[in-house]
From TrEMBL:
The keyword DNA-binding applies. This is Putative integrase/recombinase. It comes from the Bacteria. Belongs to the 'phage' integrase family. Residues 100-304 form the Tyr recombinase domain. The keyword Hydrolase does not apply. InterPro entries: DNA_brk_join_enz, Integrase-like_cat_sf, Integrase_catalytic, Tyrosine_recombinase_XerCD. Gene3D superfamilies: Intergrase catalytic core. Keywords: DNA integration, DNA recombination, DNA-binding. One of its GO terms (molecular function) is DNA binding. One of its GO terms (biological process) is DNA recombination.
Length: 314
């Protein structure tokens, strides 16, 4: 039976092969596994984490929440090799900030969202065209909601098939190439918009009153579409309710892109840096987070890294 420290050695080798910098994580996890080995624990469990927390110095909840996240990632990997592993709940320590686990839409769900948005009622049909086009654009480009809503008409170059995103979350402009079908759908929306609204804002996405479409409207209409197709429960008084979000379209784009790379046998680490730039992430670690957040990606990454380690040893 391998010790927790020996399992940690294997885990660190595999994750470093995926391109992660684990210098800080290793220091924390080494103390965790050493404590477990020295106190008779040969598997990860809630009791081990709580026992370690009670005996390992003093720190605030934010620090312990980060440590819990490191232990949980290690436990998710170890559970693939030792079915006795118990993954400690992320509710054991409540830090100030906890990144929300993304909801990954299946391609069929994305198709349903876009189709249902096209059925939203309005006097002249611009509401349906607006939100159908916006939701579809986010799904196929991975743009942030406000990046799409901030597009000016001159930022949408349909002849060159390029979108220019300005003043983005990280303060940098960037350009996104778009494919032929996306160009066609944007052109259709623009033609309907220009025909129906004479006096209008210079923004690309506008409402029937000529004013720019806004973030609140996007979230409200997305929630309504979600309820119509069963992704959210019915709500009284026009409340949004809880369920998959419009921002999860961005997450789904990233995850499906990475899954395709695994299937095609690409160099994942090299492609991830490209994706980080494309998505406008301030640091590559925000893109690598998808591998940790989505179990299927974590399993694929671990399997590939394990093969690379075995091939290197042979």
């Amino acid at each position: 039976m391998k010790t927790l420290s020996q399992r940690l050695d294997e885990y660190l080798v595999l994750r470093r092969a995926m391109g992660f910098d684990l210098s800080f994580d290793e220091r924390v996890l080494r103390k965790f596994t050493t404590y477990g080995d020295e106190n008779g624990f040969d598997q990860i469990s809630t009791s081990l984490f709580l026992d370690w927390k009670a005996n390992y110095g003093s720190a605030d909840n934010n620090t312990w929440a980060r440590r819990l996240g490191m232990v949980r990632r290690f436990a998710f990997w170890l559970a693939e090799h030792d079915d006795r592993t118990e993954i400690p709940s992320n509710q054991l320590v409540m830090g100030r900030y906890r990144r929300r686990v993304p909801y990954i839409y299946a391609p069929s769900q994305i198709a349903d969202i876009v189709a249902e948005a096209g059925r939203l009622p309005s006097p002249y049909g611009l509401r349906a065209a607006l939100w159908q086009t916006l939701f579809g654009l986010i799904a196929v480009t991975g743009m942030r909601v406000n990046e799409a809503l901030s597009l000016n008409q001159h930022d949408v170059d349909l002849e060159r098939a390029v979108l220019t995103l300005r003043n983005t979350k990280n303060g940098r402009d960037r350009q996104l190439p778009i494919k032929g079908d996306t160009v066609h759908r944007l052109a259709r929306y623009a033609e309907l918009r220009d025909r129906l609204v004479a006096h209008r804002s210079s923004m690309f996405f506008i409402k029937e009153d000529g004013e720019p479409a806004g973030d609140c409207g996007a979230r409200y209409n997305f929630a309504q579409v979600g309820r119509n197709i069963g992704l959210r429960s019915p709500q009284a008084f026009n409340r949004h309710g809880r369920g998959p979000r419009i921002h999860d379209l961005r997450h789904s784009f990233a995850v499906h892109t990475i899954l395709d790379w695994f299937r095609e046998g690409r160099d994942i680490e090299a492609e991830m840096y490209k994706l980080s730039t494309y998505l406008g992430h301030s640091e590559p670690k925000h893109t690598f987070w998808y591998i940790e957040a989505v179990p299927e990606l974590m399993q694929l990454a671990a399997a590939r890294a394990e093969r690379q380690v075995l091939e290197g040893a042979s």
